[in-house]
Design a protein that fits this description.
The protein is α/β, with parallel strands linked by helices. The protein folds into two domains: 4-123, 3-Layer(aba) Sandwich (Rossmann fold); 129-225, Arc Repressor Mutant, subunit A, CATH 1.10.10. 41% of the residues lie in helices and 21% in strands. The chain contains eight helices and twelve strands. The strands form three sheets. The protein has a five-stranded parallel sheet, with helices on both faces. It has a four-stranded antiparallel sheet with strand order 6-7-8-9, with helices on one face. Helix 1 links the parallel strand 1 and strand 2. Helix 1 packs across helix 5 and helix 2 runs parallel beside helix 3 (61-71). The longest helix is centred in the middle third of the chain and has 18 residues, at 106-123. The two termini are 36 Å apart. The relative contact order is 0.10.
Length: 229
């Protein structure tokens, strides 16, 4: 199966030369010219690896990286003109898999892509399963079981469940959930998309939706996972 790579970079010359060399190696390449476009593209499609600039318009690369990590474990290689040690360490602290400084050798970048794709493929030898209370989440197949029985959830509902199950100590604002799951920020303060989605999730997950255990409300802030184990 052809591997798909997303390049998020605002320098068109870098986009073109990296894409050209990756396509020569047989990869399918998708381009995004700013952070916001990159995040929306990532949310809408499947990718095996992401090449990511840091200094970009609309949404910086580290914010994009945080959003990617909230939903997926695909390899992310930062390509940046920020070469200071603190910048590199910050990238790794945000769970980047690699960091290559500009200007760089395209041959070296392609080799790093091959290495990370190979390692990631090996790491997927076993299905990634996550236990959350009575629920078992299969991240690869995007299925959910409750006490061994399958439970049907929509794509967005599964993304929400996975996000909360993976980040049980974090409180998410409605704006953050919109950005991470739907790929855009609410245009109006009264947008109730998140609240409606949470209500529907509770109706499926909770024994008593009016007293939720899995996704609890944080007054004036947003939502948080309510079950630790």
């Amino acid at each position: 199966m052809v591997k798909r790579i997303l390049i998020i970079e605002d320098d068109r010359s870098i986009l073109d030369i990296v894409a050209f060399n990756l396509e020569k190696e047989g990869y399918e390449v998708v381009l995004a010219s700013d952070g916001e476009e990159g995040l929306v593209t990532f949310a809408a499609q499947h990718f095996d690896l992401v090449l990511l600039d840091i200094m970009m318009p609309k949404l910086d690369g580290l914010s994009v990286l945080d959003a990617i990590r909230a939903r997926a474990d695909v390899p992310v290689i930062i390509m940046s003109a920020k070469t200071a040690e603190d910048d590199r360490l910050d990238g790794f602290a945000r769970q980047a898999d690699d960091y290559i400084c500009k200007p760089f050798s395209v041959k070296e970048l392609v080799m790093r892509v091959k290495v990370h794709l190979s390692r990631f493929e090996k790491s997927k030898g076993e299905q990634l399963r996550l236990i959350w209370g009575d629920f078992e989440l299969d991240e690869r197949n995007k299925t959910v079981f409750r006490n061994g029985l399958p439970v049907s959830f929509s794509k967005k509902e599964f993304q929400l469940i996975l996000l909360f199950a993976k980040n049980r100590n974090r409180v998410y604002t409605r704006e953050e959930l919109m950005q991470l799951v739907w790929g855009y920020s609410p245009s109006q303060p009264e947008d109730r998309t998140v609240d409606v989605a949470i209500r529907r999730l509770r109706e499926k997950m909770e024994e008593d939706p009016s007293h939720p255990r899995y996704i609890i409300s944080k007054r004036g802030i947003g939502y948080q996972a309510g079950i630790e184990k």
